[in-house]
Amino acid sequence: MPLIQNKVLYADCSFENLGDFDNALAAVGATVVFGGCETQEDVIASGSDAVCIVTELIPLDERVFQACPALKLVFTNNVGTDLIDIPAATRHGISVCNNPDYNFREVAEHTLALLLSLIRKIPVADAYVRSGGYDYNHLAPLRLFEGSTVGLLGFGRIARSVAKKLTGFDVRVLFYDPYVKQTRIGQAEKTSFKTLLQTSDYLCVHAPLTEQTHHVLNAETLSWMKPGAAVVNAARGELVDTPALIDALKAGRLNGAALDVVERYTSLGPDHELCRMENVILTPHSAWLSEDAFERCKNDLTNEIVRFFKNQPLKALLNPELLD
Questions:
Q1: Which of the 8 DSSP states describes residue 19?
Q2: Quick check: 265 and 240 in contact, CB under 8 A?
């Protein structure tokens, strides 16, 4: 198979074409290939001659970088950066970028939708009425959201958007983020990690997934949480130890959970314990999804790759030490 010059491999993207954005890439000499990849082996087979690889779900690490000698840019089409081995990429002289801005509004809205649905037991009520029931006592007890304390674990773009949207609900907002120095931002007050868990009626998880945050909510830390509290996770499934969460729910220490994500190798289905719990809401990693987000995603992704081919500074470069 002949080599493709200036090949940009879209390994596993959720869109099948770039529409008008393809013209912008063609104008800088890039050749776009949609790989339809499902595994690292597929990426290596399709990307051995690529100068840029874009991924959404497939991890890119030392193995891929060694097999793709032409590679100069990898782009994770996500806010989170856990799919890319950044130190390995840096050793190979490969720039790494993410897509930090295109979907934070949607994730913030979805977080609030999950939170309010959990508080008001909307899925339970809907299923009950559809089954022929119409006795509101079936939903008791319900709790008033006003006057509650909402904790935000992590305080980046998404969490700050959530905090802003909570302004009209007359709730107290706390956050913990070791990288944020301010003690108060808007109505949100900074506190310690343990105090956040001990104080929050509702804990919304917005931390990045790193070695340090993997299973940050585990049997020990979940035991610190306020009795009857609830957890909302629209960040990364691996932030929460699934068996420990199930144990806390079954024991009644937690009142509920709303999860847009679960751990990567968790196989959900009708027989999974989470799926059998009325006080658990599950969505299929759709917090980011909207037609507007798709267009912003394509736009931001295309513009970053164009900057790369024009040798212009990259806006979302994650390993700036390559510039030294």
A1: T
A2: no
Beta strands in the chain, from DSSP E residues, in sequence order: 7-10, 31-34, 50-55, 73-76, 95-97, 149-153, 172-176, 184-185, 188-190, 202-205, 229-233, 254-259, 280-282
User: Of 289, 279, 290, 194, nearest to 232 (Cα)?
Assistant: 279
How sure is the predictor about 300, in pLDDT bands with cuts at 50, 70 and 90?
Answer: very high
Instruction: Enumerate the CATH 3.40.50.720 domain ranges in the chain, comma separated.
Output: 7-102+291-323, 104-282
Q: Copy the structure tokens of residue 249.
A: 């729910």
- On whether the 104-282 domain is CATH 3.30.70.580, my answer is no
Give residue-wise pLDDT tens across range 186-201: 999 999 999 999 999 9
Class for the domain spanning 7-102+291-323: alpha beta
Please say if the pLDDT value at position 1 is more than 50.
Answer: no
147/127 Cα distance (integer angstroms) = 28
Residues in the chain: 324
Per-residue model confidence as pLDDT tens digits over 239-265: 999 999 999 999 999 999 999 999 976
- Residue 59 and residue 43: Cα distance in Å, rounded? 10
> Hey, CA dihedral for 304, 297, 235, 72, is it positive or negative?
negative
**Percent of the chain at pLDDT above 90?**
87
Order of strands across the sheet with 254-259?
Answer: 184-185, 188-190, 172-176, 149-153, 202-205, 229-233, 254-259, 280-282
pLDDT for 265 = 65
Q: What is the pLDDT of residues 120-145, one digit of tens each?
A: 999 999 999 999 999 999 999 999 99
